[in-house]
Amino acid sequence: MHTTDLLTVGEIARRSGFADSAVRYYERLGLLPATRTSGGQRRFERSALRRLAFIRAARNIGLSLDEVAAALASLPAGRTPTRSDWSRLSRGWRSRLDDQIGALVSLRDGLDSCIGCGCLSLDRCAISNPADSARSGGPGAAYLPPGLRADAALAPDRADASSR
């Protein structure tokens, strides 16, 4: 492969929609392989764009970076992932997405009453959460559907925040 076939951090970032810092972070984590020039600059194969699209999709449905790393580690080294590779990896996401869709529908349908925060600030909450019984559910919005309370869905990683 010629060095002209390789992309810089800036080119990869521009084409993927991620911030330069996110690209470097994912490379440091081992999610995105890079080579180095004699001057130490990172260079990425074009297939890195597919890996970044996979990372974005996986993070958007709530996969942790550890889960993303495990999925990417199962891809063949040295060749561009195929449609069947991506299909195999994403097959397990269907039930996770179905759970999230159900949770969002439940949230949407309950928005006119209580957001489940346990704050007792709305008149309706006095009925939904008498004597602050929601505190027994632990911290956070106890009445939100479980699919919307997952740590991965609520606490984006540093790299994801820098890519927005």
Short recap of the structure:
The chain has helices spanning about 10-15, 20-30, 50-60, 65-75, 85-90, 95-110, 125-130, 150-155, 160; strands at about 35, 40-45.
Written account of the structure:
It is built from 9 helices and 2 strands. The protein has 164 residues and is mainly α. The chain folds into 2 domains: 3-91, Multidrug-efflux Transporter Regulator, Chain: A, Domain 2, CATH 1.10.1660; 95-152, no CATH class. The protein has a two-stranded antiparallel sheet with strand order 1-2. Helix 1 (9-16) crosses helix 2.
Which short descriptors sum up this protein?
164 residues; mainly alpha; Multidrug-efflux Transporter Regulator, Chain: A, Domain 2; 2 domains; two-stranded antiparallel sheet; 48% helix; elongated; disordered C terminus
